[in-house]
């Protein structure tokens, strides 16, 4: 089986770069703070949802779909290795949506494992060097060797990722720790976002008295691409209106009805708004990139040499002594 997999941070910037490193194109992850249809449709198209919660052992009486009923329709893999649930939840969305550009590696994985039972699909994922390498690229630098051999005990906090995705006319919950997919209800591409909310809310309410730490992210189409297409459409309409104005006539634009030069100011305002959205998206992607660089950077050598330099100049000991005498609030 593959080498150790590390835990990774539940963050849209991390997950977006992880998908890119696995070869996926045209998608990103977006964090959600509400489950209302307006919030969800604002970032459409939404390919699937990934939910993070504090895992606890409990009995789930919901029946899983039998392998004979979903094999060949739903990509479902058992989680067979520790700490892989984040990447496995992402793959549960990606490999169940034919409208996503998977890239060569994931396309080959999906085709190769199409007829595998869920345990073998999980083994294929865990033994994929490219997927493991992409996942572990977000491993934080470890200045101290972790206790890898220590097993989690009852006091440890264990978090788990699961996916919600529409497939073949139904909404599924995909959890690699379950024996199979959980079929939640009938759903279509047009209504699954309205139907998924109550199921997630119900899960949150089960833990509400003892746990408030949850995270919900959506796998969506790359927002820069969506906004750029909207901008291009607006610019085409503006060009058509300017042409109409020069000719002194009305014209049909995009089959949406007759537009006149009086609409030009409104379109100009929309163009400004969309351009601002494009700039904001670019700034967000740059912030994500910078944060990921910091996550992957090992600052320990710098700190060590800095402290060594202070010691050589006789400045380290006075700093330590001053710190000892500082009030606790000032040391924080």
Automatic annotation (TrEMBL):
<keyword id="KW-0788">Thiol protease</keyword>
<dbReference type="Pfam" id="PF01088">
    <property type="entry name" value="Peptidase_C12"/>
</dbReference>
<dbReference type="Pfam" id="PF18031">
    <property type="entry name" value="UCH_C"/>
</dbReference>
<keyword id="KW-0833">Ubl conjugation pathway</keyword>
<dbReference type="GO" id="GO:0005737">
    <property type="term" value="C:cytoplasm"/>
</dbReference>
<dbReference type="InterPro" id="IPR001578">
    <property type="entry name" value="Peptidase_C12_UCH"/>
</dbReference>
<dbReference type="GO" id="GO:0006511">
    <property type="term" value="P:ubiquitin-dependent protein catabolic process"/>
</dbReference>
<feature type="site" description="Transition state stabilizer">
    <location>
        <position position="79"/>
    </location>
</feature>
<dbReference type="InterPro" id="IPR041507">
    <property type="entry name" value="UCH_C"/>
</dbReference>
<dbReference type="InterPro" id="IPR036959">
    <property type="entry name" value="Peptidase_C12_UCH_sf"/>
</dbReference>
<comment type="similarity">
    <text>Belongs to the peptidase C12 family.</text>
</comment>
<dbReference type="InterPro" id="IPR017390">
    <property type="entry name" value="Ubiquitinyl_hydrolase_UCH37"/>
</dbReference>
<dbReference type="GO" id="GO:0016579">
    <property type="term" value="P:protein deubiquitination"/>
</dbReference>
<feature type="active site" description="Proton donor">
    <location>
        <position position="160"/>
    </location>
</feature>
<keyword id="KW-0378">Hydrolase</keyword>
<dbReference type="GO" id="GO:0005634">
    <property type="term" value="C:nucleus"/>
</dbReference>
<keyword id="KW-0539">Nucleus</keyword>
<feature type="active site" description="Nucleophile">
    <location>
        <position position="85"/>
    </location>
</feature>
<dbReference type="InterPro" id="IPR038765">
    <property type="entry name" value="Papain-like_cys_pep_sf"/>
</dbReference>
<keyword id="KW-0645">Protease</keyword>
<dbReference type="GO" id="GO:0004843">
    <property type="term" value="F:cysteine-type deubiquitinase activity"/>
</dbReference>
<feature type="site" description="Important for enzyme activity">
    <location>
        <position position="175"/>
    </location>
</feature>
<protein>
    <recommendedName>
        <fullName>Ubiquitin carboxyl-terminal hydrolase</fullName>
        <ecNumber>3.4.19.12</ecNumber>
    </recommendedName>
</protein>
<feature type="domain" description="UCH catalytic">
    <location>
        <begin position="4"/>
        <end position="221"/>
    </location>
</feature>
């Amino acid at each position: 089986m593959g080498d150790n997999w590390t835990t990774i941070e539940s963050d849209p910037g991390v997950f977006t770069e992880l998908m890119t490193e696995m070869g996926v194109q045209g998608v990103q992850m977006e964090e959600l703070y509400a489950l209302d249809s307006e919030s969800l449709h604002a970032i459409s198209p939404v390919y699937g949802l990934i939910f993070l919660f504090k895992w606890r052992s409990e009995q789930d009486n919901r029946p899983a779909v039998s392998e004979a009923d979903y094999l060949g329709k739903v990509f479902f893999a058992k989680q067979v290795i520790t700490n892989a649930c984040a990447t496995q939840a992402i793959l549960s969305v990606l490999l169940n949506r034919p409208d996503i550009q998977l890239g060569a590696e994931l396309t080959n994985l999906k085709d190769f494992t199409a007829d595998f039972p869920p345990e073998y699909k999980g083994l294929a994922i865990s033994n994929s060097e490219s997927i493991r390498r992409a996942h572990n690229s977000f491993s934080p630098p470890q200045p101290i060797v972790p206790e890898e051999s220590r097993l989690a005990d009852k006091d440890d906090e264990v978090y788990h990722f699961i996916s919600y995705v529409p497939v073949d006319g139904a909404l599924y919950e995909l959890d690699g720790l379950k024996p199979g997919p959980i079929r939640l209800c009938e759903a279509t591409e047009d209504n699954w976002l309205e139907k998924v909310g109550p199921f997630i809310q119900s899960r949150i309410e089960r833990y509400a008295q003892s746990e408030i730490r949850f995270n919900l992210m959506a796998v969506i189409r790359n927002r820069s691409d969506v906004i750029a297409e909207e901008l291009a459409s607006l610019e085409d309409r503006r060009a058509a209106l300017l042409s109409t104005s020069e000719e002194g006539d009305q014209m049909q634009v995009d089959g949406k009805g007759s537009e006149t030069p009086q609409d030009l100011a409104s379109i100009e305002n929309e163009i400004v708004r969309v351009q601002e959205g494009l700039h904001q998206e670019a700034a967000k992607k740059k912030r994500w990139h910078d944060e990921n660089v910091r996550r992957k950077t090992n600052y320990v050598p710098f700190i060590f040499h800095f402290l060594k330099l202070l010691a050589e100049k006789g400045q380290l000991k006075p700093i330590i002594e001053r710190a000892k005498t500082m009030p606790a609030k000032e040391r924080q």
